Amino acid sequence: MENYGIVIHGGAGAIQKEKMTPGKEFSYNEALTNGIAIGNEILKNGGSALEAVEKTVVFLEDCPLFNAGRGSVFSHEGKHEMDAAIMCGKQLSAGAVTNITNIKNPIALAHKVQEDGQYVMLSGRGASEFAKSNKMRFMPDAYFYTEQRFAQVQKAIKSDMNPDLDHNLNVEAVNKFGTVGAVALDQKGNLAAATSTGGLTNKKYGRIGDSAIIGAGTYANNETCAISCTGYGEYFMRGVVAYDISCLIEYKNLSLEEACELVINKKQADLGGRGGLIAIDAKGNIALPYSTEGMYRAWQLKDQEKQIKIWS
Ligand code: ASP
Fold it and tell me: Which atom of ligand 1 is least distant from the CA of 231?
């Protein structure tokens, strides 16, 4: 049986160990454990990397703990404006949706866009029309309401914290990260990446982050690697992070680990960006660098025990 593996994340940020209760830690560990099991099962049975990342991210979107799908943060206007993207490393085909509301599973919609193939990225109203014509599931606003996210946006509004305007701000303190993502290698040697997010708490003006931007927050290429990012999206977009890592492998022959380290801990750090990413290459090498206090993450490779981690 050929090599295969899956890596997932549930966001990077100021995850303070002292503030983590045993109950909360248990819930995150459980969600990551169940998430990784979904993808691993698909890969073990010979399923595609694309299916594995989609189904895993759907599960994480349905879990209110994460800032994606059901647990998405509130925008300044009190909405849940979600972004998601998926990419297939075999054909370099991709689908992305931005600024979408009331769609139960944004990653499933992004996958439909990828399968449809006419366009790569759909936004807002048009994406909703596409979702309706493809019979995607819509949910009322109440489905996306979580007390914790509501309290977060109230706090952000009260202190008028707007990371778009104040670059000196401790964005991690304001923006509760929790984006989700998955990258996988299947038994046929194909790579895929998927990322889904509610974006930044208190975001305004239809702000779109890196998650749905192919090459910034999400990228997959069988010749190099599959990447899903999480962190302060403005920096990840400016650094074209996911594609940069792929290019360092393709043009400079860096290993996956070297490329990821350089981009997260040097290039992003120099730019002022903080966050993390998950990566896998066609040989089944993985990398999970982050520059924040913690990153919810898990991985499982063929014949190996699954690993679940929050801190280093
Ligand atoms: N990167 C996401 C964004 O900027 C946020 C996150 O990863 O938590 O929209």
Answer: 7
